[in-house]
Please model this.
Amino acid sequence: MFGENSPLSIRLGFTNVFLTECDGGYLLVDTSYTDQYDHFKTELRSMGIDLHQIKYVLLTHHHDDHAGFVRPLIQEIGARLIVHENALPNLEKGVHYMDMLYLNTCTRVTLTLFSLIREHTYPGYSLKDDDIVIQGDEQALLKEIGVDGEILYTLGHTDDSITVLMSNGDAFVGDAAMNFLGFCRIRYRPIVYESLDDVYQSWERLIERGAITVYSSHGDAFDADKLSQILQRLDG
Ligand SMILES: [Zn+2]
Ligand SMILES: [Zn+2]
Model:
């Protein structure tokens, strides 16, 4: 179902990153953990893509499993960063803001154990002059760089969470929805969040704006209908 016309994606540890064509090369959505950088370069080579073809790097939010190798990557190739303004304080310091709510006891236990082996820090990134900081939805920006899509501000997991929504309905949502840790019965919700109400509102906006297939950073792609079904149950 998500075969032939699937977007280019690379699974790096627990994180999926995505590539979509833009003027002069590719837009990369997210970087994984810092220690996945070499793995990323190897995978990219195997896809026949040169690192320097990446012209833009969009971070769905500042967490370490998304922004981990943004600094070494941009230092190496000089691509332009696209990020929400609320990401900047943490991104500059290279810290993963941890004051979040757990979805349930299962995600709390799992993540607490995981944090024993992960420090949740990464090389901090300071903006360059040509980087692009957005404040909310951005309907024109991607089209200006040759990407047939728009950016939606999909807060809830964090207050800097953004989604790339392509005109064909592919939605690169970062952690605004997940298909991960099935044993915790998360039902596509983020395993940690700042506001679950905002998560649900972001899902509604995604659906309203035409999302068809959800490409989460964690787990396999799934139909946006799944999110509609959950929202309907909440209403009922
Ligand atoms: Zn996150
Ligand atoms: Zn994540």
About this structure: DSSP finds eight helices and 13 strands in the chain. The longest helix spans residues 196-208. The chain has one domain: 8-235.
